[in-house]
Amino acid sequence: MIEYNNLLNDILLTKISSITSFNLFLFIIFALLLSLTVDIILGELPTKIHPVVIIGSMINFFKSKFIRFKNKLSGLFVILGVCIVSSVILYIIYLISSINLLLFIIIFIILLSSTFSVKMLLQTAVDVKKAFDVSIDKARQLVSYLVSRDTNELTESFIVSATIESLTENITDSYIAPVFYYFIFGLIILYYPINDNLYYLLLIPMFYRISNTMDAMLGYKTEELKNIGYVPAKIDDILNYIPARIAGLFVVVSAFLLNLDGKNAYKIMRRDARKCPSPNSGFTMATTAGALNIQLIKKDTYILGDDNKVITKDDISKAVNLSKLTILLFTITIILLFTLINVIL
User: Which residues are 298's β-sheet partners?
Assistant: First the structure.
């Protein structure tokens, strides 16, 4: 029992000698695995206490203050405001939870799980497929929550396309990117010790979630948002640049392992990934279209893949399985790489 307490206490210490310890290395890995388990089993936190919902409220507050300035820098001030307030709130939670070790671990895992959203990502696609058994109108209603386009007149093929587009585009945003930055910063704090290391370990993926939420709320080229949304959209593009391409490659590997068309997945990724308005979203969408030998179409915006077969609701299940394996393979790979780098260094 004494050894157990010493181990956990060492994790929470902010002294340089403890930051580079094996305990911190283990904590980084197991905190991610436990938070992923929490997300898969329990799903999202209640709306009233969900960090993303709170972040959204802060974005709306600062938007109302700075949108009057018809300048592209207004979005930068929104980012700074939300990041500063979020940092303070998170640090207060960090300090309060640190008074009890078990409480700290629970809070850390729950907050980390809120920076990604695997269960909801997969379940929303499954729900659309199930909705077809009720009526096409029900499917249209559910898919309207996922995409910004008008869904009132969509046929089955366009509903399926929109569902697969939303699912695969968000593989990067909802999991790959926040976990990528979590481990990148994990390496940094292992070899360049700082005080309150676990606070910053949590803050980095939270900052990514802030950026992604801000882009989702402000990053549109409408008359109202074209100025205030400019900087948030650009920052989100930059942060997703590497993770999106990593995600695309993992979709290719997953396609081969699932006996889908992995060769075509890679071909279509290279050919069509840049056809989307976003510099990043096409890398998972186009790759999935290639793997399933279907076309994903958003009218007047893009066509990804070849029209090799009629797209049906069963393709949603294939896309869900492809996404699951992509997430699993990425998780295993990044943990192994993280471990290998630490062994070598």
Answer: 302
